[in-house]
Design brief:
Layout: E1 11-18, H1 22-41, E2 48-54, E3 63-74, H2 77-86, H3 88-96, E4 99-112, E5 130-138, H4 143-159, E6 165-170, E7 176-183, H5 186-194, H6 198-209, E8 212-227, H7 234-240
Antiparallel strand pairs: 1-3, 1-4, 2-3, 2-6, 4-8, 5-7, 5-8, 6-7
Helix pairs in contact: 1-3
């Protein structure tokens, strides 16, 4: 499905787009087929996913039809910037959206698989905030139990004073979930993930009860970001706080 490219300091991009009007949302629904064709034809891109999002903090089973995302891997940061600026699919999504924000990432650790692949190539971590990404495919019998715990996790991640940014996205509602969060440092992220709160208890349940058919956990350093989300860069807003 995805092109195979040599890895030269792999760069990962996550681009978020907001489509508030009904016309724009109908347009992006149509893009779920059209944009896939464009991504398949893009020579420089490696692994990629088109994702919808969930409402509320973190992630929920209710889709947010206003917010959509494109995640992609590139052989290096310059190639990523060039394609994100010039490639037709990214230009179209920007022009139809009311707001967009892109963050460039360098993988620092990764374990597990996504759609049967290991998409991220870890490199040495850089300075600054830590980005955490988790992706899971739920086993069908466990769905109700999983989504029963999610509201508690979402409320806690939303109230955590350390989290700089958080969003829940996914390829398919309910079954496939991706959570991305940005933290000032690894310690604050680890305290949230492994503590005795809802998230820590959920992680223990995942291990003990085998909730996921497939899972991936990755961390990243931030290379760059541009655009706005909620009227400003989430990273600049944190720095100014």
């Amino acid at each position: 499905m995805h092109h195979r490219l040599p890895h030269r300091m792999q760069t990962v991009s996550l681009s978020l787009y907001r489509f508030p009007s009904l016309a724009a949302r109908l347009w992006v629904f149509g893009q779920m087929a059209v944009a896939r064709f464009s991504m398949w034809r893009m020579r420089d891109v490696g692994f990629w996913k088109l994702c919808g999002s969930g409402t509320g903090e973190g992630f929920t089973p209710r889709p947010n039809t206003q917010v959509w995302a494109i995640l992609a891997t590139w052989p290096d940061a310059d190639t990523a910037r060039r394609n994100l600026d010039q490639a037709p699919v990214f230009r179209r999504w920007r022009s139809h959206s009311a707001e967009s924000w892109t963050v460039l990432l360098s993988p620092t650790s990764a374990r597990g698989k996504w759609s049967g692949e290991q998409p991220f190539v870890p490199q040495a971590p850089g300075p600054g905030p830590v980005v955490a990404l988790t992706r899971a495919t739920m086993r069908l019998p466990i769905l109700l139990k999983f989504w029963g715990r999610v509201p508690d996790i979402s409320a806690v991640i939303g109230s955590d004073p350390n989290v700089i940014f958080k969003i829940g996205i996914g390829e398919l509602p309910l079954l496939h979930q991706v959570t991305l969060s940005i933290w000032p440092d690894a310690t604050s992220m680890a305290n949230f993930a492994r503590g005795d709160g809802p998230h820590g208890r959920a992680i223990r349940a995942v291990r003990e009860e085998g909730w996921f058919a497939e899972e991936l956990y990755a961390r990243f350093s931030i290379i760059d970001d541009w655009g706005t989300w909620g009227g400003t860069s989430p990273l600049a807003a944190k720095e100014a706080a």
